[in-house]
Amino acid sequence: IAGITQAPTSQILAAGRRMTLRCTQDMRHNAMYWYRQDLGLGLRLIHYSNTAGTTGKGEVPDGYSVSRANTDDFPLTLASAVPSQTSVYFCASSDSGTSMNEQFFGPGTRLTVL
Amino acid sequence: GQNIDQPTEMTATEGAIVQINCTYQTSGFNGLFWYQQHAGEAPTFLSYNVLDGLEEKGRFSSFLSRSKGYSYLLLKELQMKDSASYLCAVTDSNYQLIWGAGTKLIIKP
Fold first, then answer.
1. CB of B91 within 8 A of CB of A100?
2. Per-residue pLDDT reduced to its tens digit, B28-84
3. Residue B30: its chain A contacts at CB < 8 A?
4. Do B30 and A97 touch (CB under 8 A)?
5. Is B93 exposed, middle or buried (0-12, 13-18, 19+ CB in 10 A)?
6. Fewest beta carbons within 10 Å, which of A24, A43, A63, B98?
C-alpha cells in the first residue's frame, strides 16, 4: 500500500528555472491538496482540487500552477522559481473536499531555490 | 481574519501528562483536527472533534469547546517517541483546513 508518493524527495534549483513536483495517490481519493511548510508558520494551502478536472486557489497560489487530469495525479509547477519558494512541499489527499475528511499526506519534497 | 494559536514549544517528562492548547478564530467551523508530525516527516492524523466534549483514543484525548473557540490535546504516560510537533487545524466554512504553526513537544527522560 503506497498511499501518496511525491517526487523528488529533495531538489536544489537555480532561480528562474521551471520545476514540477509530482504527486500520486492510489487511494482513489477525490480531493487533493498542495501545501508548503515554512519554519514558524503553519501549513499553507497553495492549490487544491476537489475532483478530477477541477482546481482551486488556496492561500498562497502566486507563482504556482496545478493540473488534475485524472484522479491519481496532481502535479505542482513552479514556472520560474524564486528564492522565497524555498520550502518543504506536502501533497495531501482526502476522500472528499466538500465535507469533513481526514487528509493523508505524502512524505514531502524539500525544495531549495538559489 | 482567520487565526489559529498554539504554544510554540513545550517540555515534559517521560511518564507524565501534558496538555497542548489551541485557540481559533475562523470563518465558519466544520471541525477541528490534531495531527502529529515528527521531524522531517509528514503530518499524521491523531483526532477529530466536531461536537463539544472529550474524545479519548488510548493515551491521547482531545477536547473541544466551540463557544470558546478552544481545544486541547492531552497526552498521558508520555513516551520518548511522543517527541514531535502537534498541529491544530480547523475546517472552515469552505471545508478548507486552516493550520496552526504547531507546538514542538520535547520529552525529557
1. yes
2. 899 999 999 999 999 999 999 999 999 999 999 999 999 999 999 999 999 999 999
3. 100
4. no
5. exposed
6. A63
